[in-house]
Design a protein that fits this description.
This protein has about 55 residues and is largely without helices or strands. It is elongated and about 60 Å long. Keywords: Oxidoreductase. This is Phenylacetaldehyde dehydrogenase. GO terms for molecular function: phenylacetaldehyde dehydrogenase (NAD+) activity.
Length: about 55
């Protein structure tokens, strides 16, 4: 059943108040996911090596 659920978050027999500072913009319209989180950093940045001769 779990692979068929297309939702960002699912609560069963409980609920949780989410902090407005948590990441948002996730799967479909859930509002929990990419922006303001680690995934956003990975998405919007590029690894770069810099060597400086001292």
């Amino acid at each position: 059943m779990i692979p068929r659920i297309k939702s960002g978050s699912v609560w069963v027999n409980c609920h949780s108040a989410l902090d407005p500072a948590l990441p948002f913009g996730g799967y479909k319209m859930s509002g929990v996911g990419r922006e303001m989180g680690y995934a956003a950093i990975e998405h919007y940045t590029e690894l770069k090596s810099v060597l400086i001769k001292l």
